[in-house]
């Protein structure tokens, strides 16, 4: 098993946490997005989409972080990253998608580059965009977990799972332009708990083979 | 079971197709996004996030289209919307997320409003943004299904499933600013096949209780 990763990629960060929670050891192959290595022919030969993360398993290349994580959860049952009950599973997946669909794709590198290069936004304009969409998503996320009796030490109960491993990298990103995190006390409590957990610490962008100063 | 829906919402369109494929009858409650009904107190009392679609099941409100569809697939096994093999499931989910994460959230109504109202983009600027991100996603999608031996009459084999029900609403959206669809022959073939299928026809934005002229 090989994970194509980039230390700063929050989608790769999610997969690293999942691998660590499952106790799966996996070779990491760094692909430097900042230097455009994802567009080089040698990486395109492996992954024509030129995206990170990608997980090579049994000669197949899996792409998109959430399907990779669902695969890991189906192929390696313990510890589970999703609850057993279908209604609870839908709840946890919805939390994950508030971030993975409604926030992260709108504030990732290619969108920020497009805003700057094609729409002429300056640094302040890019930062305002970035923080606006993160704040919008975190408000929904906070409202759900603050109101729901299924919240515990983690987003669902007292063990880390899918919602946590999507939330933590997004909150890490929120530091980029110093988003005010005070409106999200439940998120802050859970993220602090995650950031003390060995699986999350080992997956942190500061602790990767390709880490650079943050 | 009640589905909070809007005829034009492509995320609601996905859920309508899934319900139809499963043969599940469900009351539809229209929420008019164009008139801002999702922000009204009576809807916020049901769904604090003010989003569509939402599915009310056993007194619980499920949100986010893909978790709703995965729930339907877990609670109503036949016909399956995902393959049985974990690696194949990851492939189909990745196809779905190319659209559901990397395209649709970047071109939905709130983003277009933001581009116009906050970044001062005119109609041509909004249209260029819209088509740029749809084309980027469809290129990846086409490359995957054109190369993969698992493609059949539908995205995976010869029965419709998760990837198809995410693809079809996105291609419907691509008509809004008349995106050139000629670079996507495999997508076009599969979408044409879907658009002849009763479950897809009944879910089409033109055929809803709240439909307006398209």
Summarize this entry quickly.
Chain A is of the alpha+beta class and 214 residues long.
Helical residue percent of chain A?
40-55%
**How many strand elements of chain A?**
4
Total of DSSP H or I helical runs spanning 4+ residues of chain A: 9
The ordered H/E elements of chain A are EHEHEEHHHHHHH
Profile the largest sheet of chain A.
Answer: 4 strands, mixed
What oligomerization state is this entry in? homodimer
Question: Into which percentage range does the β-strand content of chain A fall?
Answer: 5-15%
Could you tell me the radius of gyration of chain A in angstroms? 17 Å
Shape of chain A: globular
Unreliable spans of chain A are none
- Mean pLDDT across all amino acids of chain A: 95
The span between the termini of chain A is 28 Å
Question: Could you give the order of strands across the largest sheet of chain A?
Answer: 2-1-3-4
Structural class of chain A: alpha+beta
Task: Report the largest inter-chain contact.
Answer: A-B, 40 and 40 residues
């Amino acid at each position: 098993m090989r994970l194509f990763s980039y230390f700063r990629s929050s989608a790769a960060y999610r997969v690293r946490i999942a691998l660590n929670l499952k106790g799966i050891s996996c070779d990491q192959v760094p692909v430097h997005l900042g230097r455009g290595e994802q567009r080089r022919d040698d990486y395109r030969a492996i992954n024509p989409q030129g995206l990170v993360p990608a997980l090579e398993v049994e000669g197949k290349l899996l792409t998109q972080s959430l399907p990779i994580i669902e695969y890991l959860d189906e192929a390696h049952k313990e510890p589970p990253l999703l609850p057993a009950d279908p209604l609870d599973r839908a709840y946890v997946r919805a939390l994950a998608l508030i971030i993975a669909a409604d926030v992260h794709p709108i504030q990732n590198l290619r969108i920020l580059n497009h805003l700057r290069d094609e729409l002429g936004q300056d640094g302040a304009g890019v930062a305002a965009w970035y923080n606006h969409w993160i704040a919008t998503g975190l408000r929904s996320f906070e409202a759900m977990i603050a109101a729901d009796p299924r919240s515990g030490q983690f987003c669902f109960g007292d063990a880390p799972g899918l919602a946590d491993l999507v939330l933590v990298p997004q909150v890490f990103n929120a530091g980029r332009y110093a988003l005010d995190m005070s409106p999200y006390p439940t998120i802050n409590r859970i993220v602090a708990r995650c950031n003390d957990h060995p699986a999350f610490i080992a997956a942190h962008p500061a602790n990767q083979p390709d880490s650079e100063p943050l």
